[in-house]
Amino acid sequence: MLLGCIADDFTGATDLANNLVRAGMRVVQTIGVPDEDMRIDADAVVVALKSRTIEPEEATRQSLAALRWLQAQGAGQIYLKVCSTFDSTERGNIGPVAEALADALGADFVPVCPAFPENQRTVFKGHLFVGDLLLSDSSMRHHPLTPMTDASLVRVMQRQCRGKVGLVDHEVVRQGAQTIAGRMRALQAQGLRFGIVDAIGNEDLLSMGRAFAGLPLLVAGSGVAIGLPQNHGLMPSEAAARLPVIPGPKAVVSGSCSAASNAQVVDFLQRGGEAFAVDPLRLAAGEDVVRAALAWAAPRLGEQAVLVYATAQPEAVKAVQGRLGVEQAGAMIEEALSAIARGLVERGVRQLVVAGGETSGACVQALGIARMRIGVQIDPGVPWCHAASPVAGGEGLNLALKSGNFGTPDFFSKAFGTLAQ
Length: 421
Description:
By secondary structure, this protein is an alpha/beta fold. The chain has 2 domains: 3-237, Putative sugar-binding, N-terminal domain (Rossmann fold, 3-Layer(aba) Sandwich); 243-420, Four-carbon acid sugar kinase, nucleotide binding domain (Molybdenum Cofactor Biosythetic Enzyme, Chain A). The chain contains 14 helices and 18 strands. The chain is globular, with a radius of gyration of 20 Å.
């Protein structure tokens, strides 16, 4: 195994795997830390955890377990994958997990870069931008679980770490891999342990990929992945993304409340798609919304995709959270949507799109999926996958796990056409 990756949520894992595949690596994503005796034939393995918003101590424990398994498989380099919007709290989980992994690996200096320019995530002077907006001015400032109100990644990371955090700014990055490597050595000599690395375009990611060759650990979003396969003589190849296409009914399950997912739901409805809205207040009142959704979907399953969604505007989300509490509202919706996803697959759905990181994690677990082979990209950061599931029969199913913030407005409609090409 050339590269071992630890992702802090399931959509982030597929986002990373997608970029590695695009750059020529054969990639398998596991759901959680695999059994000790599992052996995987791939250039890279991404271990998908559901650790972004849990307690830092538990996130660290799970991440170290993933590290031990990857080391046992001979992984040559470890990649801690975090969100491209650096989702975290004052306590973690990025800083504590990164320090624990660095300690375990004996890594004296660790580069940190969540940039993904293809998805409008760039880092300049250590500040994270979403499109033309600072992170703190973007819709992420209203995130229900991890509101991001500070765009300075040096400050955000430093609040979570014991070790000192510095900056490799764009004046250095644009000069290429050797200059980047020299700046990292200089920061290390000054006693710094982490360095935020600027990136505003793919050429920056390719340069830092070469500069990161041989480092035991790096912390990044998925963008840096495009620069790593070149270190192993790998080039983009259609064969790396080849998947079996499983025929059958199509469905979308959306639990994200991001601006992008809201726009995708609206686009789907405007195109005449049929949809069922999950009302969390009905769930809280004890109504069997899962049964109602599956009864609604059953006669509609076929060539045209159906949508089941709990996506809502930020004001509506806050109203529900105020009534039920943040954790209870989120857990209740995840449980309902994952049960609906399982029910849809039991009723024959074989091509399934899931929107939202937490929703994707819950749905994958409900479907009993242990690992996935990563295939063709739908939009930057979102590939189709193939997975075996005990409720899907012998051929398995095709699955796309979409981070809430990713994808064009027509994503739900075009995803299935991409798989058929």
